[in-house]
Amino acid sequence: MEKAGSRILIIDDDPVYRRLSSSILKERFTVFTAEAPSAGFETLKNEKIDYVICDYRLPQMDGLSVLERIKTDYPHVEVIMVSDAGNMDTVIEALRRGAVDYFKKPFTPADIWMSIEKTQRFSKLKKDFQSEKNKNSQLKQWVDKEMGLQMMGESPIIEEIKNQMRLVARTPDTSVLIIGESGTGKELVARGIHNMSVRRDELFGAVNMSAIPESLFESEFFGHKKGSFTVAIADKAGWFETTDKGSLFLDEIGDMPHNLQVKLLRVLEEKKYVKVGNQKEQTFDIRIIAATNKSLEEISNPKVFRTDLFHRIGTFIIHLPPLRERKEDIPVLVNYFVEQFSEKMAKT
Is the pTM higher than 0.85? Predict the structure, then answer.
């Protein structure tokens, strides 16, 4: 019969049961035996053991203590407990401490094989689960990279920005204002904050505020009912409805006209809006992430931007520096783009 790669250690101070267990299992497994916990731990230290069959009554320490130490020092090793004095309390405690199975003396070959097969199935399921977990972790890393959680750069200032993103992501209702020149990655940071927050499973919406005409502001953000105006040929959901429970990125918010700033402020304060052509108020639950290429001095100037709206959207402010202020990140970016273009052009 095939000897599987599995290696079993039997810890039992009773020589009769120790020999019996060994004779049953050695046809299919590599078997080690120990008459005391100390000898068993020595075997675990020197050999690659997959499963341990451990008696409950042992010299030096009881089987539960042996089990606990094995699961602490060798968490990959699965343990089966066996005893002639076990009661349900002992069984429950053994399982609670990490044993896969438990059977009593006297036992038959069938008892051992049933327990071994159960342990093998459990071990396979655990390995499969861990494999899937690793795949999901790798997938998440890829998604994080694609969606902006892994910002390119290793400079202290980029590391600080990453820390700020992680920090504000923990508070899903905190509004964020990202300040930086064009091309510094403001939307990248906004998506990263969304993807690290509890809102990550909901929609992330991005709107260029400078591209929305004043006449369409309410339709774009609040939505409209069919027939509410000439070109309203169908019902339309606005951004506040579409991104409900998610995050809404308002890019170039510093370019909004003053009269639209008033409308936006009122909606953000009340967290309610009314669709064009409808009388019913609707509520929303959205994290607002705004961005501007204006400096902090400009955006906080009442002549440029309403002070009350500035405080409403700027609960947490992140400053993004241009590349010229973090030149140590240039090699990282160069390597990244070289790898990207090499992959696309199938070159090394």
Answer: no
